[in-house]
Structures are given as structure tokens and as C-alpha cells.
Design goal:
Layout lengths: L2 H41 L4 H37 L14 H6 L7 H13 L8
Bound molecules: zinc ion.
The site of zinc ion has 8 residues, from helix 4.
Length: 132
């Protein structure tokens, strides 16, 4: 590994560590808000419209929180790969992920072509909320 790559990796590690702290704070804040919301709806909500609005809010919060948790897992995995030295290799084809891509998405697990194929496969597997 050359010096330039080493420098980039140090920067990417900083980015990832910072993002992880941000996400932890976000998830924590979301949990807090959720708790307050639940508390508030139990005591203060009187008419049905408010209740529906509260439920909607809390659903949206849940989606955002889930997204944060997913990203947090990816960031943690990326930091782990940095430690083990496998960082920057595509999880599917094993080729190095371009630095350009890593700078935009430090937690990326796949090179651009493999990621595209992966997302395509997800699309083809159909809607995930079949019951809704
Ligand atoms: Zn690949």
C-alpha cells in the first residue's frame, strides 16, 4: 500500500468514526423522541385526528431510525475492515473499490458495478411489503 493510499485511509477512518458518532447521537435522540411521543399520546391526545397524526409521526420516526441503525451497522463493519486490512475490497468480486467511490461513500461494501447488480437483484425480488 503506498503512502497516498495510506493517507486516504486515515482520512476515511476519520470520516467513518465521525459518522458513527453522529449516527449514535441520532439514534439516541430518536429513541428519546419516541419515548416522549409515546408518553404524550398516552396522556394528552384526546381526539382521533391527533392520535392518527401521532401515529404517523412515530411511524416516520421508526423508518428514519431503522435507516440510521442500518447505516450504523455498515459504518461499524467498514471500520472493522479497516482494522483487519480488508477495507476497500469489493465484498462480491474482491476487486479494489475506487477511491473516488470510497470518498463519497466510505462505508461502501461493493464496487460500483457489483453494487448496481446487487440493487438490481433486490428490485427483482419484488416488493418487500407484500402484506401492506
Ligand atoms: Zn465488485
Amino acid at each position: 500500500m503506498d503512502l497516498a493510499t495510506q493517507t486516504h485511509l486515515t482520512k476515511l477512518r476519520d470520516l467513518l468514526s465521525f459518522r458513527l458518532l453522529e449516527l449514535r447521537a441520532e439514534v439516541h435522540a430518536a429513541e428519546q423522541a419516541q419515548r416522549e411521543l409515546t408518553g404524550a399520546s398516552a396522556h394528552e391526545v384526546t381526539d382521533r385526528k391527533d392520535e392518527a397524526a401521532q401515529r404517523l409521526l412515530s411511524d416516520l420516526g421508526g423508518v428514519q431510525e431503522q435507516r440510521d441503525r442500518d447505516e450504523m451497522a455498515q459504518v461499524e463493519a467498514a471500520l472493522q475492515r479497516l482494522d483487519t486490512g480488508s477495507y476497500g475490497d469489493c465484498a462480491d468480486c474482491g476487486e479494489p473499490i475506487s477511491l473516488q467511490r470510497l470518498q463519497v461513500q466510505p462505508a461502501a461494501q461493493r464496487c460500483a458495478p457489483c453494487q448496481a447488480a446487487f440493487e438490481h437483484a433486490l428490485d427483482r425480488s419484488g416488493p418487500r411489503h407484500a402484506l401492506s
